[in-house]
Amino acid sequence: MGFFGYTLLSFGKRLAQELEKEVTKMRKRQQTKTPETEDRFLV
Questions:
Q1: Residue 43 per-residue DSSP state
Q2: How far apart (Å, rounded) are the C-alpha atoms in residues 3 and 13?
Q3: Residue 35 pLDDT more than 90?
Q4: CA angle centred on 20, ends 17 and 22, rounded to 5°
C-alpha cells in the first residue's frame, strides 16, 4: 500500500467525517424549509 496510500486513506476518512457533519447540519436546517432542497443534496 505504501505511505501515499495510507495518507490518502486517512484523508478520505477525515473528509467523510467532515462531510457527515455538514450533511447533518444541512438536514437540521432543511427541516424548517421545503423538502425539495434536501432531495438535491441527497443526489
A1: -
A2: 15
A3: no
A4: 115
The contacts of residue 38 (CB under 8 Å, 6+ apart) are: 26, 27, 30
**Longest CA span, the chain:** 47
User: Which residue's C-alpha cell is 505511505?
Assistant: 3
Which grid cell is 30?
432543511
**Domain limits of the chain?**
18-43
| Residue reference for cell 477525515 | 14
**Chain position carrying cell 467532515:** 18
Give the global pTM.
Answer: 0.50
What are the residues whose beta carbons fall under 8 Å from the beta carbon of 41, sequence distance 6 or more? Answer: 23, 26, 30
